[in-house]
């Protein structure tokens, strides 16, 4: 929109009037909006760059510090755990000088049982799997304890027989179990006149078929004194299976 203004002396000037605020065209408004969006995006980018740079630097420094700490920990761990492993091995190996014995079965000869006792078994103490170590001795059916302490004592006796023997297995009448087999681990000590039963196991043999096999295992910890003697007694020595040394055995070791 233009108007002619009189300036005097017959001269005129043409003045172009700016459009009012509400009279902008749609294209002009679109250009203004686009410029405003670009300015806002540029401002956000400029503000975000320092923040991203700082965050990246922080993460890199933290990762390098963690790697350094891990290296130091591994080094100190190796220095600390190395001797302890050696100490643990030395402690476990120190038990090698403790008294222990493992006896295996031998062919048994019928013997006359002692008064109020079942027959005692003979054992092999040198050949095959059998051994006695560190002052543990075997003599005349007895395993002799060389020093006072807590011992684990164990025995397994395997019996074999036939059903025709059911009801005929010899038993002491006071036990009132004529059709069973019995194993007893007995302790004999000089300070007490009568033998002491440490463990006893029993099984019935009348409910099994012909050519039966019945193992009885006993084992427990006991506080024993130097000079104590241990033996294994059975109700019928003729039924003991002596064919293999892993079927019938007897032993003890200091804990």
UniProtKB/TrEMBL annotation:
Residues 99-255 form the THD domain. One of its GO terms (molecular function) is tumor necrosis factor receptor binding. It comes from the Eukaryota. SMART domains: TNF. One of its GO terms (biological process) is immune response. It is found in: Membrane. SUPFAM superfamilies: TNF-like (SSF49842). Keywords: Cytokine, Disulfide bond, Glycoprotein, Membrane, Signal-anchor, Transmembrane, Transmembrane helix. Its main location: membrane. Belongs to the tumor necrosis factor family. Homotrimer. This is Tumor necrosis factor ligand superfamily member 15.
């Amino acid at each position: 929109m233009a108007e002619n203004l009189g300036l005097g002396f017959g001269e005129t000037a043409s003045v172009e009037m700016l459009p009012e605020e509400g009279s902008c065209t749609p294209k002009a408004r679109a250009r203004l909006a686009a410029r405003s969006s670009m300015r806002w995006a540029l401002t956000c980018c400029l503000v975000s760059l320092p923040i991203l740079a700082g965050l990246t630097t922080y993460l890199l420094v933290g990762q390098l510090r963690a790697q350094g700490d891990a290296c130091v920990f591994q080094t100190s761990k190796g220095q600390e755990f190395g001797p302890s492993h050696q100490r643990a091995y030395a402690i476990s190996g120190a038990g090698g000088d403790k008294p222990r014995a493992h006896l295996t079965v031998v062919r048994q000869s019928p013997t006359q049982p002692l008064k109020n006792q079942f027959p005692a078994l003979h054992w092999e103490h040198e050949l095959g799997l059998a051994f006695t170590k560190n002052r543990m001795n075997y003599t005349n059916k007895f395993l002799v304890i060389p020093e006072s302490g807590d011992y684990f004592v164990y025995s397994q006796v395997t019996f074999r027989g036939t059903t025709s023997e059911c009801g005929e297995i010899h038993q002491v009448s006071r036990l009132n179990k004529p059709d069973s087999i019995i194993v007893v681990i007995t302790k004999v000590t000089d300070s007490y006149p009568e033998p002491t039963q440490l463990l006893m196991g029993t099984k019935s043999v009348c409910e099994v078929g012909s050519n039966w096999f019945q193992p009885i295992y006993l084992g427990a910890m006991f506080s024993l004194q130097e000079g104590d003697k241990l033996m294994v007694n059975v109700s019928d020595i003729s039924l003991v299976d002596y064919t293999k040394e892993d079927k019938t055995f007897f032993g003890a070791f200091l804990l």
